[in-house]
Amino acid sequence: MTPAAHHSQHAPELRATARHLGRRRFLTGTAAAAALAFTVNLPAAGTAAAAELDPARLTDDPFTLGVASGDPLPGSVLLWTRLAPAPYQADGGLPAERVTVHWELARDETFRRPVRRGTTLAHPEFGHSVHVQVDGLENDRVYYYRFKAGAWISRTGRTRTAPAPGARTAALTVGVVSCQRYDQGYFTAYKHLAEDDVDFVLHLGDYLYEYAVSGVGGARAYPAGTVPAVYGHEMVTLDDYRLKYALYKSDPDLLAAHAAHPFVVTWDDHETENNYAGAVSENDDPAEEFLIRRAAAYRAYWENQPLRRPQLPDGPDLRLYRRLHWGRLARFDVLDTRQYRSDQAYGDGWRVPGPESEDPGRTLTGAAQERWLIDGWHRSRALWNVVPQQVTFAQRYNSTTVPSQVSMDSWDGYPASRERVLAGAQAAGVENLMVLTGDVHVHYGFDIKRDFADQASKTLGTEIVTSSISSGGNGSAKPANWGAFMAANPHLKYYNGLRGYATVSFGRDLARADFKTVPYVTTQGAPLTTAASFVTEVGDQGLKPA
């Protein structure tokens, strides 16, 4: 079924209502919110009165999608699971009834030193997902957690709280991941990340892909029919997105990484649709149609990620940009460069910059998020100001030809937006800036220049771009364009096209980035290699080989 044909599955009455709403009103009006709530079955006020499932009816393991935790705060953890005894069914194998879920938090893996326990409800309108916020905990401490429903107990997860505000923390290590296309390879890098010593993981987008998956799982080359036929079309509806998360979360290596570490997540495009921009779809679908799809995608994202209550979506809107602190050592301004951006200039792709892309009114972040970022820098007391986000921030020419083409989907396609951010960082006196990026399926290490046209200008910070977990297939250490990119971009200090992830360790004197790779993803069992390591020093920004 084509995406266009699949759109017809949206309720006709909703589509009729949507056509009478202008784009601006569709995004902000209460009538639009009500219409979109209807299409994605948001819980009504009387949800608590819904029937409750008899636990004895849970005859199969409901914890097939694993457990996760996210957004560690001082004295607070967020715990997640989603019940799905039949994950490849649209309803997860559960009736439209609420389920009581017990949770437990302890200091040790055996739960002999319990700290907190309680119950919560898994509502069918939320895809039987649960998000449990546990407050009043000790700061900067590791905890273990698990869930129980009926006679079933989940696997054990490991999480942690952040240090106290203002704590002079000495060290922090984060894992940085992105882009995990199921049908282009195994998630072997996650197996290694689960065993790595990191405090939390930053996922920078493309957690899943909207595209169809064949019965053999694409490059995974399973026996025919292993992947159910329900995955044979592009996802468009809420059921589609829920099912796709279930497929991805069937991967044991992804489950292991989530159980081992808290995740801080943000999306890019494929969680909804390739290269969409705000309310503009890739194929220029009518806005009322695309925003219905976006509402479904955002709803499923919330249901399937360890996100806190402020990230609960409202129709086609979900405020994903947010700020986390690690004592006074580091602050993380997590961006969303999809929901609020101007449409890509010149029809997207690699293009020579011109008046359309250089229009000063264009934005990648939207005005409100841009102000939030820059104003936050003026108040920052952190040693390291870190910006986890989606698309390549540094200037990236694809040849030494003048003028060179640049990617219209990255910050190069929005140079006025980048200039405002760089000017804001400089005005705020940000001295140790690091941008963390995904999207492009390669490892890059960039120096961030105040003026990329003048390589003698001040280096304001560094950008660490992580390669993909599996997207793009096996890759190569030195892609065909390696020489051209290195020659055209003197601020590019490292480029590797194998799959993998990065770790960044922040200290009081320097930060160290380790680019980790696997030699292949189309078969299982690949070993992990640290392909390169760089440091950037406090007060002297710029990547240097470690």
Description:
Residues 1-5 and 16-34 have low confidence and may be disordered. This protein is of the alpha+beta class and 546 residues long. It is 20% helix and 27% strand. Helix 5 packs parallel to helix 7 (252-260), helix 6 packs parallel to helix 8 and helix 9 (367-379) packs parallel to helix 10 (415-427). Strand 1 and strand 2 (76-82) form a beta hairpin. It comes from Streptomyces rishiriensis. InterPro entries: Metallo-depent_PP-like, PhoD-like_MPP, PhoD-like_sf, PhoD_N, Phospholipid_Metab_Enz, TAT_signal.
Most strands sheet: 14 strands, mixed
Structural shape: globular
Calculate Rg over CA atoms: 23 Å
**Percent in helix:** 10-25%
Number of helices: 11
Mean of pLDDT: 93
Unreliable stretches (pLDDT < 50, length at least 5) are: 1-5, 16-34
* Strand count: 24
Beta-strand percent range? 25-35%
End-to-end CA span: 51 Å
Secondary structure class reads alpha+beta
GO molecular function: alkaline phosphatase activity
Enzyme class: hydrolase
InterPro entries: Metallo-depent_PP-like (IPR029052), PhoD-like_MPP (IPR018946), PhoD-like_sf (IPR038607), PhoD_N (IPR032093), Phospholipid_Metab_Enz (IPR052900), TAT_signal (IPR006311)
Domain Phospholipase D N-terminal: 65-161
